[in-house]
Design a protein that fits this description.
This protein is an alpha+beta fold. Helix 1 crosses helix 13 (448-458) and helix 2 packs antiparallel against helix 6 (167-187). The protein binds adenosine-5'-triphosphate and magnesium ion (3 copies). Residues 209, 410, 413 line the site of one magnesium ion.
Length: 566
C-alpha cells in the first residue's frame, strides 16, 4: 500500500478523553475513531491488525478441529427466558422490541443460540463431539465503557462452543481448547499467562482466563514466583469465595428483587466476619497517590470518616473523589441511590480494620484494594480478596513457593459449562443403547478487539506503538526520504514491487512530507521493520534499516538485498 493513497489519519495529540496508552495510540495511529460511548469504527490500518488477530485465531481453531459458523447478533428473548438469563443478566443485556412488540436482545454471548441450534440437529452420540466457533460482533451495555477498545460496548469476539457425550469427552475438549489458546497467544507474540478463574455470570464447573500481562490491566493475578517451573496463577477474584447460599430479598430492601445461588445477606456477611451487622461499615478503602482514601457510601459520611480514622489510627484519611472510585471500581459517578452500590460496596469490619491498618503502614504507592468484599445489587458477594495477605505469605498451592501479584488484561476465557444450558434448554442425544442423555458443553471466548489494545499496552514506547510482527498491520515500511530524487524513487519502487511479489505486507511512505514527519509517523504506527531510502546512503550503495522495537539501526546492500527477504 502507498501511504499517499491510503487513509491513515495520524494525530499529533490524543484526544483528552483517552486515558490509557493503547486508547491514545489507537487514535493517534489512525486505527480507530469513536462513534459514541464504547462504540468505535475501525479504520483501514487498525482493521488490518484486527484481521491479523482474527486470522491467527481462525487458524488455530481450525487446527484444533473447531468449525467456523456465523450466528445472528439479534437474539429472541424466549431463548433467554428458557435458560433463565433474561431475568439474571441485568442491564448489560441490551433489550428491545420489534414492531410486533416481541422482545429481543443484542447478543452479548451466544450460549442460548447455539444450544437452540444443536438441540434441533443433534440426535445421536454419533454426531458428537462437536466444536463450533464464530468471530462476531458482541454488544454489552457496560456500566462504564472505558479505555477505548479494552472495554467497549460493541466489540469483536471469537466464541466457540463444544458439545460432548460425557464428562471425559468434555474435559478433553476443554484441554484441547486450553492448548489452542496457548498456541494462539504465543503465535501473537504476546506475554500472557493462563490463570484459574471464577466462573461468573456464565456459570459452569471450571474455567481459565488468559491474561496479557500489563500494568494497566484491570485484573489482579496471584502468580507463582517459581514460573515457568510452576505455572500456577489465579485471578485474585477467586482467592476466597464464600460458599454458595440463597438470600431472602426482604433482608436486602434496596436491592433488586433477584436471588441467585451465590447470594448472601448482610447478616450472613457479618456472620462470616464474626461481627454484628452494626459493626459493618459500608466502606471502600484504598490507596490513591500513595495515600489512604475512603469512599463512604452510606450513613453519616463525616462521622464515619472520623470513626474510621480512629479505628485505623491514621492522621490522614481523605474522602476518595468520585473519579478515584470510578477508576478503581468501574462505578458510576456519584453515589446516588442503591444501584450505585454495584461492584463498589466493600465491607470493612472492626477486626479487619486492624489488618487494614497494617496494610496502610506497609502499602506502596499505587497499591489498590485492602480487604475487598463486594456486595452486588442482588446482595451477591462476588469477591473477597485479601490482596495484602496474598502478597505477604500466601504460598503457591501447587509448589509452596511465594506468590506475586501482577496486573493483567483478560483477553480470553474458557469455561467447562457442564449441562447448565443443555439441561435448561433440553439439548439431548441418544446413546448406544438408545437412552436419552444431556449434552455436556464448554464455551471459549477471545476478545479479538481487546487483543489489539492489549498488544499495544504491552508493546509501546514514548514514540508510539511497537507491533510484534504477527499482529502488525504491515510488516515492513519503506520510507522515501526524498521523493524529488529520481534514484531514490526508483529504488523505493523496486523494493516495493519486490516485497509485494514476496507476499510481504508492505507500506510505502511515498508522501511529499519532510523526513522528520515520516520518521515520527513510522515510529508512531509501529511497523516492525523500517527500510529508510535516502540519497546519501544510496550513493554509498546502502539502504538503512531500523528495527522499531529495539531501535537497532543497520544497513543492507541497495543492490543485493533480495536474500535478506527470502
Ligand atoms: P471482563 O471481566 O473484562 O468484563 P468478561 O469476563 O465479562 O470480561 P467474557 O464473558 O469472559 O468477558 O467474554 C470473553 C472475552 O471477551 C473476554 O475474555 C474479553 O477478552 C472479551 N470482552 C469482554 N467484555 C469486553 C468488552 N466490554 N470490550 C472488549 N472485550 C470484551
Ligand atoms: Mg464483563
Ligand atoms: Mg472477567
Ligand atoms: Mg471472562
Amino acid at each position: 500500500m502507498r501511504w499517499s493513497s491510503s487513509y491513515i489519519p495520524t494525530l499529533k495529540e490524543a484526544p483528552a478523553e483517552a486515558e490509557v496508552i493503547s486508547h491514545k495510540l489507537l487514535l493517534r495511529a489512525g486505527m480507530i475513531r469513536k462513534l459514541t460511548s464504547g462504540i468505535y469504527t475501525w479504520l483501514p490500518f487498525g482493521l488490518r491488525a484486527l484481521n491479523k488477530a482474527a486470522n491467527i485465531i481462525r487458524q488455530e481453531m481450525n487446527n484444533a478441529g473447531s468449525q467456523e459458523i456465523l450466528m445472528p447478533s439479534v437474539q429472541p428473548a424466549d431463548l433467554w427466558q428458557e435458560s433463565g438469563r433474561w431475568q439474571k443478566y441485568g442491564k448489560e443485556l441490551l433489550r428491545f422490541k420489534d414492531r410486533h412488540e416481541r422482545d429481543y436482545c443484542l447478543g452479548p454471548t451466544h450460549e442460548e443460540v447455539i444450544t437452540d441450534l444443536l438441540r434441533g440437529e443433534v440426535r445421536s452420540y454419533r454426531q458428537l463431539p462437536l466444536n463450533l466457533y464464530q468471530i462476531q460482533t458482541k454488544f454489552r451495555d457496560e456500566i462504564r465503557p472505558r479505555f477505548g477498545l479494552m472495554r467497549g460496548r460493541e466489540f469483536l469476539m471469537k466464541d466457540a462452543y463444544s458439545f460432548d457425550c460425557n464428562d471425559e469427552g468434555a474435559d478433553k475438549s476443554y484441554k484441547n481448547m486450553f492448548e489452542a489458546y496457548n498456541k494462539i497467544f504465543t503465535n501473537m507474540a504476546l506475554n500472557f499467562r493462563p490463570v484459574e478463574a471464577d466462573t461468573g455470570a456464565i456459570g459452569g464447573n471450571f474455567s481459565h482466563e488468559f491474561m496479557v500481562l500489563a500494568e494497566t490491566g484491570e485484573d489482579t493475578i496471584a502468580a507463582c514466583t517459581n514460573w515457568p517451573n510452576c505455572t500456577f496463577a489465579a485471578n485474585v477474584e477467586r482467592c476466597a469465595i464464600l460458599p454458595p447460599k440463597t438470600i431472602n430479598s426482604d433482608s436486602c430492601p434496596d436491592m433488586e428483587e433477584v436471588a441467585t445461588p451465590n447470594s448472601h445477606t448482610v447478616e450472613e456477611v457479618a456472620e462470616f466476619l464474626h461481627v454484628s451487622t452494626k459493626n459493618i461499615l459500608k466502606t471502600l478503602l484504598f490507596m490513591a497517590d500513595g495515600k489512604p482514601v475512603a469512599a463512604l457510601l452510606r450513613g453519616d459520611r463525616e462521622l464515619n470518616l472520623i470513626k474510621l480514622k480512629n479505628l485505623l489510627d491514621v492522621d490522614e484519611l481523605e474522602f476518595a473523589t468520585p473519579e478515584q472510585v470510578q477508576q478503581l471500581t468501574n462505578a458510576p459517578v456519584g453515589f446516588a441511590g442503591p444501584h450505585s452500590l454495584i461492584g463498589v460496596d466493600t465491607v470493612i469490619a472492626d477486626y479487619e480494620l486492624q489488618t487494614a491498618n497494617d496494610w496502610i503502614a506497609g502499602a506502596n504507592k499505587g497499591d489498590t484494594h485492602v480487604l475487598h468484599l463486594s456486595l452486588q445489587r442482588d446482595c451477591k458477594i462476588t469477591r473477597y480478596a485479601d490482596i495484602r495477605n496474598a502478597e505477604a505469605g500466601d504460598v503457591c498451592p501447587h509448589c509452596g513457593k511465594p506468590l506475586e501479584l501482577k496486573k493483567g488484561i483478560e483477553v480470553g476465557h474458557i469455561f467447562k459449562l457442564g449441562t447448565k444450558y443443555s439441561e435448561a434448554m433440553h439439548a439431548v442425544y441418544l446413546d448406544e443403547n438408545g437412552k436419552e442423555n444431556t449434552i455436556i458443553m464448554g464455551c471459549y471466548g477471545i476478545g479479538v478487539s481487546r487483543v489489539v489494545a492489549a498488544c499495544i499496552e504491552q508493546n509501546n514506547d514514548e514514540n508510539g506503538i511497537m507491533f510484534p510482527p504477527p499482529l502488525a498491520p504491515y510488516e515492513i515500511i519503506i520510507i522515501n526520504l526524498d521523493p524529488k530524487n529520481q534514484a531514490v524513487n526508483a529504488k523505493c519502487e523496486e523494493l516495493y514491487v519486490h516485497m509485494k511479489e514476496k507476499n510481504i505486507d508492505v507500506l510505502y511512505d511515498d508522501r511529499e512530507e519532510r523526513p522528520g514527519i515520516k520518521f515520527k509517523d513510522a515510529d508512531l504506527v509501529g511497523i516492525p521493520l523500517q527500510l529508510i531510502v535516502g540519497g546519501k546512503s544510496l550513493e554509498k550503495g546502502v539502504i538503512e534499516t531500523k528495527i522499531r522495537k529495539i531501535g537497532e539501526k543497520s544497513s543492507i546492500s541497495a543492490e543485493n538485498y533480495k536474500a535478506d527477504f527470502e
